Amino acid sequence: MALHSSFKLYTSADTFTLQPINADSSTSSENVVIQRSTGSVQLNSPASAAPSDEEVLTIYGVIGFVRLLAGEYMVVITERSKAGQIGTKDIYKVKDYKVLPLSRNTLALTEAQVGEEASYLSLLHSHLQSGTFNFSYDYELTHSLQRQAELKDNTQPIWERADERFFWNKRLQSKFIDHTTKNKDQDLSKFILPIVNGFAEIKTAEINKKPFTFALISRRSRHRAGTRYFSRGVDADGNVSNFNETEQILVADAGLDGAASALPGGQIFLAHVQTRGSIPIYWTQINNIKYTPKLQIFNNPETENTFRTHFEIQKKFYGPQLVVNL
User: Fold this and answer.
1) In angstroms, rounded to a whole number, what is the distance separating the alpha carbons of residues 63 and 60?
2) Above 90 in pLDDT, residue 161?
3) How far apart are CA 165 and CA 314, in angstroms?
4) pLDDT at 262 exceeding the cut of 50
5) Which ranges carry the SAC domain (predicted)?
6) In 49-74, which positions are buried (b, 16+ CB within 10 angstroms) versus exposed (e)?
7) Distance CA 40, CA 47 (A)
């Protein structure tokens, strides 16, 4: 199930309306209406006359919803750039975005809370402006090629098949996900766009007049994310700080031997995956003015169990492990 790739976003005082744009640039009869006062969602709400002051914006996906002190905000993609293709699937980068308030009630906030709201919004913008968010409407970007080959149910929507470790905006998408799972006749799956936080660079080249595509993709885990020094070690579920998966992909023509003739377009796909993360024990490193801050290892009785849990997860996803100390 491919996702909707662009929308008209109609904004009025009472609602946000998402209307998909078809391939021929016409608008779809399908729509999602979000009530600004309550935050409620409705698929294919009956059309109403558009207010004269209604604003119209073209967007390329909904990143999700964030609740702060003054209420909910909807984060949308307003500009994208194409990173390249893997096979026949397009991969995009988020170039620009908007944070749109639903029902902002700043009058109910104290002066201190107004300042806190501004700080939270500043942090949100700082994160979104980091420029490291990638997505695709029809490629399983949260999965390596190996995991894609092993997916058993291809009829599920992309968000449901996504590797939840690298589904960076999964929490932000909970409004649409919860609405879909709780209402059988209200399936918003085509509106739920998984975003990957990481790196994506795709280049084409030739060797002896034979074209090939080389891609380098990194996926940052949403579990125990943090910057170096500020987040270290492992948690009770075996998740380590700053975990990421890096995949090198090579796509080339199958050649004359027919070895990959059954693959789409007669192409052969090769990939190499490696992961990295913090040492899976309980430890910390307090950031100070020293070049190498002193680290502290905790004598936690659960260390052995969480260490084992981490590598059981690793073996489940990647098989036998070769561990290198960086």
Assistant:
1) 10
2) yes
3) 12
4) no
5) 124-326
6) eeeeeeeeeebbbbbbbbebbbbbbb
7) 16
